[in-house]
Write a structure and sequence with these properties.
The structure is a single chain. The protein has 215 residues and is of the alpha+beta class. The protein contains three helices and nine strands; from the N terminus they run αβββββαββββα. The strands form three sheets. It has a four-stranded antiparallel beta sheet. The longest helix has 22 residues.
Length: 215
């Protein structure tokens, strides 16, 4: 009787062991291959165009490239019309973008404007910009910032936005301007058009463009 019970107990233990081993194998598994997604970011690339030219080759005044990337105009007289193209061109490979141009005019002989006045030159640029649809705002420190209200595409025939092309030296300027050295500093900035609204004074796009002129 005892022998039979021992056999039964042994058989029961063996069955438990088999069940235990079987439980460790009761998993179904699978895995997938790795799929790598690559995102390549775009870029914004613009060029500031600053070109000098003569409307009349008989004009006395002359110009030559300077070491600051612009031009040095010499022997300029009241009443002269100065040819000066200022524009922004979107370069090949660039994404569509919004652009702005900052203009700062100073008379280094009278930096505080105590005797001479650069406003007539600013007024001409503002008038030219309005004809081309630019927006204008105070740029601080006596400068003006102009914003082109449409996205410009490198793939378009119209990939360049012109701000102005001429400056007329006021005929009424007198002896207080003799020997004056006028600096016309221009700088361009651009920001992506994707996911940003068209520039309007005070909106996000204008804020982002203004940040680029700081410093």
């Amino acid at each position: 009787m005892k022998k039979k019970n021992l056999l039964t107990a042994a058989a029961s233990l063996a069955l438990v062991a088999v069940i235990g081993v079987g439980a460790t194998l009761a998993y179904f598994t699978d895995k997938t291959d790795v799929k790598t997604n690559v995102f390549t970011t775009g870029n914004v690339d613009v060029e500031l165009i600053d070109e000098a030219f003569k409307v009349d080759e008989n004009e006395v005044w002359t110009f030559e490239k300077n070491d600051k990337g612009g031009y040095h105009y010499s022997d300029v007289m009241p009443g002269d019309q100065i040819g000066k193209n200022v524009a922004v061109a979107v370069q090949e490979g660039s994404q569509d973008c919004y652009v702005a141009i900052r203009v700062f005019i100073t008379n280094t002989s009278d930096p505080e404007g105590l005797v001479t006045d650069m406003q007539p030159l600013y007024d001409q640029i503002v008038a030219a910009s309005e004809q081309r649809g630019w927006l204008c705002a105070d740029g601080g420190a006596g400068s003006l910032v102009f914003y082109y209200p449409h996205a410009i595409s490198a793939n378009s025939a119209e990939n360049t936005a012109y701000l102005f092309s001429y400056l007329n030296i006021p005929g009424e300027w007198g002896n207080e301007y003799v020997g004056a050295e006028l600096n016309i500093d221009v700088a361009a900035a651009a920001v992506q058009a994707a996911n940003l609204p068209a520039p309007e004074l005070g909106n996000t796009t204008v804020d982002e463009l203004n940040k680029l002129f700081v410093g």
